[in-house]
# Entry
Amino acid sequence: MKTKSFLPVFLFLTFVISGVQAQTAPTTPDPPKDPAPTTPAPTPAAPTVDPKAPAVPVTMGTEVDRDTTPTPEKVQATEVASNELKLRQLAELVEDLKNKVTATKFRLQLLKEAMTAEKETLGGARIVIKHVNNMGGAFKMVRLRYLMDGKLVASYSDAGEKDREVLAKKEISIPVGHVSPGNIRFRVFVTYQGNGYGVFKYVKEWKWEVHNTYSFNAEPGKDYTLEVQGVEKGGWTTPLDQRPHIQFQLQSKALVTKEEAKPAKTK
# Structure
């Protein structure tokens, strides 16, 4: 009887123990699977260049300011502007040549009058103009004219290469020559152009013409030097168009008389 009563209990215990061992037994992980082989992407073939094909021009700039296909109207407008500039420069050059001819004739007339007139000294009075450019770097002298008693005696313009070199000098000597004694009136005209660069390059489009008058009484037997200075007035706060100014300074000395001009007698 005892054997039969313990048999179910023994079977139950055996079942429980086997279940616990099954739960506590270490689990062996599955072996990792081999990754699927990847096929490399095909390399793009290099473009073939035809050596006989024409070269493609490279244009600089953005798409906004790039004009690879100018219209006939744009081309014509550019040519018209260029032609107008050339005509304007040619007209300035012709005008300057006319002024030079007029000034030369007047100076020859002065010399003739001085040589033919009976004077106490050789040729009466003599005048030399010395123009001094004391303007700052913001101003470039592009034209200079002198009139004496309403007659043109000197003219320079940057339209000509030689005149351009003269205008670039610090001092310009203008020999007026011998004149008859009396009251003489000089008038000077100076044209300046703005000389800017960088962010101030727009100043190159500006021009100013200033003029002034000076009169004096030329005495016989005197040698006069009229110094004309182009200077700036004001300061940094003064507008550019109000800075150019012309001032005068007159110097004189005795001319050589007829007696002094005679060669000394040798004993």
Helices lie at 2-24, 72-116, 161-167, 258-261. Strands lie at 125-133, 139-148, 151-157, 171-179, 182-194, 207-218, 222-232, 244-254. Residues 85-258 form one domain. Residues 56-66, 117-121 have pLDDT under 50 and may be disordered.
